[in-house]
Amino acid sequence: TPKPLLQVGSEPLIGWHLRRLAAAGVQRVVVNHAHLGAQIEARLGDGAAWGLHLTYSAEASALETAGGIATALPLLGDGPFIVVNGDVYTDYPFARLLAQAPQLRADGVLAHLVLTSNPEHNPNGDFSLDAAGRVHDAPGLTFSGIGVYHPALFANTPPGAPAKLAPLLCAAMARGQVSGECWNGQWLDVGTPARLDDARA
Prior knowledge:
Layout: E1 7-8, E2 11-12, H1 13-24, E3 28-33, H2 37-44, E4 53-58, H3 64-76, E5 81-84, E6 88-90, H4 95-100, E7 111-116, E8 127-129, E9 135-149, H5 165-174, E10 178-183, E11 187-189, H6 193-200
Parallel strand pairs: 3-4, 7-10
Antiparallel strand pairs: 1-2, 5-9, 6-11, 7-9, 8-9
């Protein structure tokens, strides 16, 4: 079973994202997948069960986050878009990212990240957030896997090739082009059986 399809209560993990995205006013969602991706398409279908229109960006082999996004760009359009990792559980209100999206520009802020308090499995965190709301490449808080991005962030990332997101973000941070916020609500990285039990509890 691919992690996004692990059952948590009444929904698979990804189903909670879809439900909350629809509630926030999102209408179109692109799901990228590689490992066991056919199961994801079979389970989610066209998204009508969540009031959404789903399309899929299938990867023959996993392309990492940036590679997957770059490959899916033709389906995402020319404006900023939300990205949510399929293997986290959260009650983050996605409407906040819809409100943030108009602030992103090709010649300005390229990404807005949602950071969270450090879980036990990531005690030092990933990035830091300053008083002005800028994100820096220094330990402090954990990146939640939730953010909104401008397509220009991926302008030099070739589609169809593996590429990690962190180097792109860190380069943009060095230019002062990444903003962020800290979310203190529910958030779990469902990366182990024990953390799946936590999500179900």
